[in-house]
Amino acid sequence: MATINLGAIKFNWQGAYAGGTAYAVDDVVSYNGSSYICKLASTGNLPTNTTYWDQMSSAGTNGTNGTDLTTTLTTQGDLVYRDGSGLQRLGAGTAGQVLQTGGAGANPSWGTVSSDYVKIASVTATGTASTVNFEYDFTPYKNIIVKYYDTYPSTQNSIEFRVAIGATPTYLSGASDYAVLGYGRYDNFSGANGSQSSSNQYNRIISSIGWAQNTGQSTTSFGSLEIYNVNSTSGLYKGYRVDGSASEAGGYRIIMNVGGWIQASASDAITGIQCLASGSNIYGIFNVYGVK
Q1: Disulfide engineering: 208 pairs with which of 54, 120, 123, 186, CB 3.0-4.6 Å?
Q2: Helix or strand or coil: residue 271?
Q3: What pLDDT shows up at residue 253?
Q4: Are 282 and 158 in contact (CB under 8 A)?
């Protein structure tokens, strides 16, 4: 009568293959990521030797079927996608780009979102400085818009906007250099039409969006400033428009809806915009947009 060894009717896992180990039939080993079963007892014969071993499972090729992507994804920001033949690396795009699909049968890619109205920055002033400067790359844009919210000076004072020119922005503020801004100063916050001050007609856009407002009062100003033709260097006039209103202890008061010409040299592009509270600090939220 035949004798059956009950211990040999199942696979015997032996771990990683070792050249000095004697392997019996049905022993199973791992080798280079794959598994093999012994079909003929031997010692020192690699699992890839088909006389002694049969392969049970196969390791994938690194970077091709997802078992090991370390050779495909080599740099921080890399992504992996499948093309017509296997997995491929998509290197990180440049800052601000978005991932775009090419549709069915095409590969994804990085691209730039095209828009005529672009948010450049958002700045929150917390009363730690008397100026807030907006110095960004304005060259892609025709106009720049600064929208301000909940804006007020730390003490009773006015808030102004000024512009700068030059590669290193230089803010123009001289009353006699005819190089900054046309008429647009409103000093009399509560007057029906405000008042204009000839002594400062060239160095400010506005100077009263927060007049007579102090911290501790429930007073805020909000509005927008738009600078036109910021990159003009060929004689095209640069101008501005300000819309704003504010609340005071006595109620809401409309401040202004004014515009004017910027008297900066026609050959100078505008490279910066400044919000200034002379003699006090600024609170408020400012969002800067570019219009192409």
Answers
A1: 186
A2: strand
A3: 56
A4: no
* Strand, helix or coil for residue 126: strand
pLDDT digits (tens, 9 = 90+) for 22-53: 999 999 999 988 899 999 999 999 999 999 99
Cα–Cα distance between 205 and 181 in angstroms, integer?
A: 6
pLDDT at 7: 56
- The torsion angles phi and psi of 153, rounded to 5 degrees, stand at -85, 160
Please give the C-alpha separations between residue 280 and each of 157, 263, 273, in angstroms, as whole numbers: 7, 27, 18
Query: CB neighbours (10 Å) of residue 225?
Result: 23
Q: Find where tokens 């570019």 sit.
A: 290
Question: Domains in the chain, ordered, with CATH?
Answer: 7-57 (2.10.10.20), 79-111 (no CATH), 117-291 (2.60.120)
HSE value, Cβ hemisphere, 13 Å, CA-based, for 56: 15
What's the whole-number mean pLDDT along residues 78-100?
A: 84
pLDDT-derived band of residue 181, with 50, 70 and 90 as boundaries? very low
3-state secondary structure of 162: strand
pLDDT (mean) for 193-212 = 39
Tokens of 219: 């007073």
- 185 and 175 Cβ atoms separated by less than 8 Å: no
- Cβ–Cβ < 8 Å for 14, 35: no
Q: Are 3 and 17 in contact (CB under 8 A)?
A: no
